[in-house]
Task: structure prediction
Amino acid sequence: MPVPTARTRRPAVTIVTLALAGAVVWLTLTAGNPFPPRAITMATGPPGSAFAEFGARYREVLRRSGVDVRLVPTHGGVENLERLRDPRSGVSVAFVESGITSPERSPDLVSLGAISVEPLWLFFRSGIQIGAPGALAGKRLSIEPEGSGTRTLALRLLALNGVKDSSLRLFGFPPARAADALMRGELDGVAMLTSLRSPVVRRLLVADGVRLLGYPRADAYVALFPSLTKVVLPAGVADLARNIPPQDVPLLASEASLVVRRNLHPALHYLLLEAASEIHGGPEIFQPAGRYPAAEAVDLPLSEQARQFYHSGLPFAYRTLPLWLAGMTERFLILLIPLLVVMFPLLRLVPALYGYIVEHRIYSLYGQLRVLEREMEETERGPALQPIALALEDLSRRASHLSVPLMFSQRLFILKSHIALTRAEVEKRRRAGPADEPAAPAEERPEVGWPELPRAR
Result:
């Protein structure tokens, strides 16, 4: 087998490092979903709702980063939740009200935090008196379609007050259609769970012949349903000139969360959170500036990226690099750190292993030299030493072609010197025939020594 030379040899540490770095790069580029998608599908809500308005804003903000948001109108939070649960729907992001799911029922979903507060608005015709729950009997009330958070919460509150839905004429109109029907007198009342940003809510607050009902027992509802909160709409906030509403109105509200599928690319978690800060971070009637988005896992746990975002902000890579490169960088570091834990002890072991291999090559030649010395001592003088001389010549040639690092060069030099001394002794004995003067006793002859090798520093 040819002996490697200094020109062809590569340091073992470099080879191992390059191999492991190549493995990290390969895993980064191939394992899982390394590149964030360029398009996502978001379930929003019915036309005229705050969810629909939010969806349009998210599409606008994410377009700046090169991500296309495909909006899917729905009946509301309940339908949004069902679409998120179904991986075949293609929906990976949606708005969901609190109190309609749990980690056990939605194990594949995580929250990016609460984004807004949504009051349950009750608008009635001005001429209708609602003094007690029984006064609702026979009234025409729209509580939005099946699949909406409004319908779920309204039916729950009606049942809590002992009102059977069979005593009402319930309709499932979307918010915009329900508002038109209410103002035309085709409905007696409308319930909708949505933000004050909803265009329909703003229109009904100042509409003639329509009034907003409050919840005098709001604190009792909150005590019974901890997922609800109490908010107060200040008097005159809708129209100061006309003093609409004429007095403070206590309302029940539910927090809305931005919910995603657990397998959504981590880079999009950060992108959505950054967009949420821009869209929902401003002040409103029911919230001070900076209140949302908030690290409140109402029904579902926060994603790992959301916890990091609320704890320390956007990671450095996402603040300074393009989206796809930031995602790759984060993924590379996640894979590299565990490998470094393995590589560090390995890189310390490699030099020792390499030194052992080099020493073994030198000592193997020394072993062969000792065998030849022993044969020289046992062989008579004269031509009989010729095979030993040839073997020593071959051994000298192999030692000359042996390439070792600089730190082992002294050992190799001693080996070559020892071989040269032994060859000289063999040549001397070979030329001295059997008739020559007998050699001195062994104890008086100079011994071709086995010098002690210096240890590597």
